[in-house]
Amino acid sequence: MAEYALLIMLVILVATTLAGLPMGISMIVSSIIYLLISGRDIGLGAEMVLNGVFGNFAALAVPLFIFAANIMDAGKISDRLLTFCLAVVGRMPGGMAQVNILTSLIFSGMSGSAVSDAAGVGKVVTDMMLKDNRYPPGYAGALTAATAVVGPIFPPSIPMVYYALVSSASIGALFLGGVVPALLIVLLQGIAAYITAKRRGFPVEDAIPFRMFPLIILRALPALFMPIVLLGGIYTGIFTPTEAAAVSAFYALLLAVFAYRSLSLKEFAAVVLSTVKTTAVVTVVLCGAFIFNYVIAIERIPQMVYEVFSYYEMEPWVFLLVLNILYLILGCILDVSTIQLVITPLFIPTAMALGIDLVHLGVVLVFNMMIGLITPPYGVLLFIIKALNGIPLRDMIREIWSHIALLVGLLFLITYVPELVLWLPRLAGAMQ
Prior knowledge:
Helix content is 75%, strand content 0%.
């Protein structure tokens, strides 16, 4: 029966997942059954969890970034950022759409999560776009979903931390590698919003008097400094990326409690509870992934994948094309953490053998999976916006395709022009 252990494990994994069991628990259950059937020490499962999750300093960054994002949401810090963005780009054609785009970029430098972006500042700016029927609901919701994808691409990024855990790529280099692609997203989305506003006659917001700018900038400055503090600290060597996560959480707490005085003790307790719940879910997935990946390594699945690609003498550009198509499909079905922790390790040996830089690959894969978050019929961000803002899903789906086309085009650009990803990490000395 031992020779069928892998097959039995996969059947149990699929069956328990389809039955509604969370993916992390399904991976733990199926992997332990594999260890039992194959005659291996079941204690290996616990060892993988202890070494992979609780013995990995980088894994600590995930709950800390989640905590920082929750504080940002609860502390009303987004209100200052919205006012700042309105002053900067509100007078442009389609001003509120431009505010949506710029706010997502700034907030992404604090949260590292597309879901936090859409559910936090995204909800507020969508409501502003819908006020007095200034924008069609479908367009407003689709734009908010599309701008939220920049969150995990611009540093800090929780999905990049996941990727670093399974690939051993530098977190610092991955963070920097996402900067140029994120800025390109914002630039192209801004141009697209400008053209759409002109074509469809979207309104220009009332210009904020220039005399108000100093006060607006002063109120937003502490929040705007957060990404600078994080990246500056990492690349000057003051602290590691994981320590940067702790700094971001502490900095967000200082802003909410002392600078803006917008976080009560009751709200802080709710933030802690929310963070603990989210971290528990993430930790279960991490535990399951490390046990599952151990089984995959025993069965030499990554080596088999490499042998398949080697048999067909696949060129690096073809491998990247196949990977992009696969991940575009998977991103519509599975959550990001599952893809990064379970699927990605299968392809790391092949990528290394083909000479593909792992930092470049990591940014490409994260970018790719963010597109899955807005792709119908299972676009998670679309469902979040529907739940929070009450916008019909069909209206958003009608508007989302142009955003998907823009992002897919940019995905293939960064895939086949690696310097767009690698230039900044090399310039900063984060990689050779």
